[in-house]
């Protein structure tokens, strides 16, 4: 007999876990599980980049 039940368990391709929370990623928000996790990662990346004071002297001059 063919064990068809096991075929349903095996995915076509391995799912990647969400980098933020570790949940299975959704195709719509790949590689994240949701738009929220996507925003969190994006904001972290942007804030991390802008948090680095390349030339603090110029920033002080603008004020
Ligand atoms: Zn997530």
Automatic annotation (TrEMBL):
HAMAP family: DNA_gyrase_inhibitor_YacG (MF_00649). Zn(2+) binds at residues 18, 21, 33, 37. Signal peptide: none annotated. PANTHER family: DNA GYRASE INHIBITOR YACG. The keyword Isomerase does not apply. Keywords: Metal-binding, Zinc. Inhibits all the catalytic activities of DNA gyrase by preventing its interaction with DNA. Acts by binding directly to the C-terminal domain of GyrB, which probably disrupts DNA binding by the gyrase. Binds 1 zinc ion. Interacts with GyrB. It comes from the Bacteria. One of its GO terms (molecular function) is DNA topoisomerase type II (double strand cut, ATP-hydrolyzing) inhibitor activity. GO terms for biological process: regulation of DNA-templated transcription. Its cofactor is Zn(2+). InterPro entries: DNA_gyrase_inhibitor_YacG, Znf_NHR/GATA. This is DNA gyrase inhibitor YacG. The lineage of its organism: Bacteria, Pseudomonadati, Pseudomonadota, Alphaproteobacteria, Hyphomicrobiales. Belongs to the DNA gyrase inhibitor YacG family. It comes from Nitratireductor aestuarii.
């Amino acid at each position: 007999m063919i064990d068809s039940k096991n075929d349903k368990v095996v995915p076509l391709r391995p799912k990647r876990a969400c980098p933020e929370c570790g949940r299975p990623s959704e195709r719509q928000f790949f590689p994240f599980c949701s738009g929220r996790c996507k925003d969190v990662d994006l904001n972290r990346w942007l804030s991390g980049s802008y948090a680095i004071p390349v030339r603090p002297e110029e920033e002080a001059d603008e004020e």
